[in-house]
Automatic annotation (TrEMBL):
UniProt keyword terms in alphabetical order: Coiled coil, Cytoplasm, Cytoskeleton, ER-Golgi transport, Golgi apparatus, Phosphoprotein, Repeat, Transport
Disordered: annotated segments: 15-35, 590-805
Short name of one Pfam family: Pkinase
Organism this protein belongs to: Dipodomys ordii
Transport listed as a keyword: yes
Protein name: N-terminal kinase-like protein
Taxonomic lineage: Eukaryota, Metazoa, Chordata, Craniata, Vertebrata
């Protein structure tokens, strides 16, 4: 029977990289890159090949193998695994780079900051202090070749080949036999007189001085060069001179040297070192200390090395959120560090944490997430947005904190392109409708209108037809002036989504009403929009073949953006919407739509102002965003302020010709109204609006449709007015729209005020009141009769007498 010996190298769970070695130190080891076979994670593999006649070097390598395996310290090279055979030794450690190669690469990449070097030397000092003071070991090989750097920029002390005990156990220091390493030996080792007076750390501290000189000045040519500090920082020079002094007795202990450098204004007293020290002890810090640290961390991250932020700060931030109580303060530094990650790393490390944060009830965390959404929205896929993010974000629309509601509205600009049909066209529109009509904050209502104008192109064709015109029309009646501006800009920014019929019958009448707005900014934007819509209508009128091209987007599916034509046609509107909310003043007096439904606009010049009328305390529209056409067709359900917006201003220009034929005025007015209602396109639009109102999804979350609000007393429809009169008296017929007491004398029948403005509903109300009064009187009489009858039937009763049946 044949037995085959197993190859231990082949069975080793780590493999060498095919790339050439990263470097060879003056010692016996050669450093290779490698990876773990099972996971592919990177490692470093130190390889020593056993050669004939090198027994002494082999013993040194095996001793180093044993030392590295047993020593555990954060600043000493971390041992992972090892392999020892007759032909070779393999030592697997964390992935590192020789310090010399690291410094060269950092200089070529744009320079090495002094704070990085201060932290690196700080770590080497801590490692030496651990060996000398805690383990009674002399490293005996401190030099550039014995220091390595991991992926986070942390310096690790290696090169344990020539380590020996400070207590003399196991003999003296091993012989090196390598000239490149012996040049770092202190001068007292050359003679025999200095051995009796030196401290156990004296030789290692001399070698540390050589390392400091090489870090700032490059390779050490000879020992005499140590007398010239060269590029060593001034704050470090006095302490450096103590290390390379000729008297070994005065060389400080590593712990004392570290304390001296950490003194105020010392070389190692800086923000970077402080941050690293806090991160090393973060697990034992108080919650208040953690909060303060993370709040100040964002300011310093810009000056910290990228590798340090990615591999040391980021894990601590994720741990602080996952297991600590850091809360929202970790978000700002977390997203700042996220800029250094690749798309794949971002998906793996940050997105799961962000998705989990959205489910938090902490208001501070929610508002931070909304404010910084643009930093991570590109890494969120559509299924994650619709199933794990949006359901939590919409709760912000109902929050009692105005800041959260406002940020939630703004975040929809980023989320809208990733929302599905239901979330975008149903859920989001439901919340937007409620905010625009019922929110008590003017800037939030304005932001809702602005956001709707920007995401209009993402909506479905049916939703656009049902919502946009109605929403922007409602915004033009908002008491908050910037909201009215936003309504105008919304019309202009989404102009390509309206048919020519809608432009003429729905949009222009609304915009014309804004030309007499009290605010000049509103009037200016209204005139711009009117000119733009008129030029569009005129171009189609001149060349009807352009109609198909102009209306190509009206019934098209949702698309990301309005296209080049829209940008060139109404670029002022898009710019205005982008900068509008940034100019809002919080101190601006606002009124909720529940208080008034339209601003009090000044009348045209030369005409008297309408008499003040009472305004209902609740929105008068029976649907969410009612159109102007619906208001005209159901004049009974609209408020006086709404009717003021709908007055036909153009009719005033024909006053001369109209007054010449007073008998036909009312008939023509009725015919005109009948002609508008019977227009075939208008009928189709009205049917569409009726179908929208029939859908229950839009009405969810909105106020309950209120019953039609009765007209104020003394008000009738325009078609019922008596427009007769002579030409000499041309008063404004709208000046008499006020409730007149019945006791006032009636005016001259020939004047403009001849009409009886008493409403028909006044008589019905009086009749009802009279009927109710009569019923109450009759009821009172019946009750008195019953009480009298009952009292007479009982008769007088004696005290204690028993009542008989």
């Amino acid at each position: 029977m044949w037995f085959f010996a197993r190859d231990p190298v082949r069975d080793f769970p780590f493999e060498l990289s095919p790339e050439p070695p990263e470097g060879s130190s003056p010692g016996p080891w050669v450093l290779h890159r490698g990876r773990k076979k099972a996971t592919g994670s990177p490692v470093s593999i130190f390889v020593y090949d056993v050669k004939p006649g090198s027994e002494e070097q082999t013993q040194v390598a095996k001793a180093a193998f044993k030392r590295l395996k047993t020593l555990r310290h954060p600043n000493i090279l971390a041992y992972i695994d090892g392999l020892e055979t007759e032909k070779c030794l393999h030592v697997v450690t964390e992935a590192v780079t020789p310090l010399g190669m690291y410094l060269k690469a950092r200089v070529e990449a744009g320079g090495l900051k002094e704070q990085e070097l201060s932290w690196g030397l700080h770590q080497i000092l801590k490692a030496l202090s651990f060996l000398v003071n805690d383990c009674n070991l002399i490293h005996n090989n401190v030099c550039m070749a014995a220091v390595f750097v991991d992926r986070a920029g942390e310096w690790k002390l290696g090169g344990l080949d020539y380590m020996y005990s400070a207590q003399g156990n196991g003999g003296g220091p091993p012989r090196k036999g390598i000239p490149e390493l012996e040049q770092y030996d202190p001068p007292e080792l050359a003679g025999s007189s200095g051995r009796a007076v030196r401290e156990k750390w004296s030789a290692d501290m001399w070698r540390l001085g050589c390392l400091i000189w090489e870090v700032f000045n490059g390779p050490l040519p000879r020992a005499a060069a140590l007398r010239n500090p060269g590029k060593i920082p001034k704050s470090l020079v006095p302490h450096y001179c103590e290390l390379v002094g000729a008297n070994p007795k005065v060389r400080p202990n590593p712990a004392r040297f570290l304390q001296n450098c950490r003194a105020p204004n010392g070389f190692m007293n800086n923000r970077f070192v402080e941050t690293n020290l806090f991160l090393e002890e973060i697990q034992i810090k108080e919650p208040s200390e953690k909060q303060k640290f993370f709040q100040e961390l964002s300011k310093s991250l810009d000056s910290f090395p990228e590798d340090f932020c990615r591999h040391k700060v980021l894990p601590q931030l994720l741990t602080a959120f996952e297991f600590g109580s850091a809360g929202a303060v970790v978000l700002t530094p977390l997203f700042k560090v996220g800029k250094f990650l690749s798309a794949e790393e971002y998906q793996q490390k940050i997105i799961p944490v962000v998705v989990k944060m959205f489910s938090s009830t902490d208001r501070a965390m929610r508002i931070r997430l909304l404010q910084q959404m643009e930093q991570f929205i590109q890494y969120l896929d559509e299924p994650t947005v619709n199933t794990q993010v949006f359901p939590h974000v919409v709760h912000g629309f109902l929050d009692t904190n105005p800041a959260i509601r406002e940020q939630t509205v703004k975040s929809m600009l980023l989320l809208a392109p990733k929302l599905n049909e239901t979330n975008l066209n149903v859920e989001l529109m439901k919340h937007f409708a409620r905010l625009q009509a019922k929110d008590d904050q003017g800037p939030i209502r304005c932001n809702t209108t602005v956001c709707l104008g920007k995401i209009g192109s993402y909506l479905s064709a049916s939703t656009r037809h049902r919502v946009l015109t109605s929403a922007f029309s409602r915004a033009t009646k908002d008491p908050f002036p910037p909201s009215r501006v936003a309504g105008v800009l919304g019309f202009a920014a989404t102009h390509n989504l309206y048919s020519m019929s809608d432009c003429a019958h729905k949009i222009l009448p609304v915009l014309c009403g804004l030309t007499v707005d009290p605010e000049k900014s509103v009037r200016d934007q209204a005139f711009k929009a009117i000119r733009s819509f008129l030029s569009k209508l005129e171009s189609v009128s001149e060349d009807p073949t352009q109609l198909a091209e102009v209306e190509k987007d009206v019934h098209a599916a949702s698309s990301p953006g309005v296209g080049g034509a829209a940008a060139s046609w109404a670029g002022w509107a898009v710019t205005g919407m982008s900068s509008l909310t940034s100019k809002l003043i919080r101190a601006h007096p606002t009124a909720t739509p529940a208080e008034t439904n339209a601003p009090q606009r000044s009348p045209p010049e030369g005409h008297p102002a309408p008499a003040p009328t009472s305004v209902p305390a609740t929105p008068t529209s029976s649907s969410h965003w009612e159109t102007q056409e619906e208001d005209k067709d159901t004049a009974e359900d609209s408020s006086p302020a709404d009717r003021w917006d709908e007055e036909d201003w153009g009719s005033l220009e024909e006053a001369e010709s109209v007054l010449a034929q007073p008998d036909d005025w009312s008939a023509k007015s009725q015919e005109s109204q009948a002609g508008q209602v019977s227009h075939p396109d208008r009928k189709a639009l009205e049917s569409d609006w009726s179908s929208w109102e029939a859908e229950g999804s839009w009405n969810q979350g909105w106020q309950e449709p209120s019953s039609p609000v009765p007209l104020p007393e003394g008000t009738r429809l325009a078609s019922e007015y008596n427009w007769g009169g002579n030409e000499s008296n041309k008063g404004d017929p709208f000046a008499a729209l006020s409730v007149r007491p019945s006791a006032q004398p009636r005016p001259d029948p020939d004047s403009w005020g001849e009409d009886n403005w008493e409403g028909l509903e006044t008589e019905s109300r009086q009749a009802k009141a009279e009927l109710a009064r009569k019923k109450r009187e009759e009821r009172r009489r019946e009750m008195e009769a019953k009480r009298a009858e009952k009292k007479a039937a009982k008769g007088p009763m004696k005290l204690g007498a028993r009542k008989l049946d």
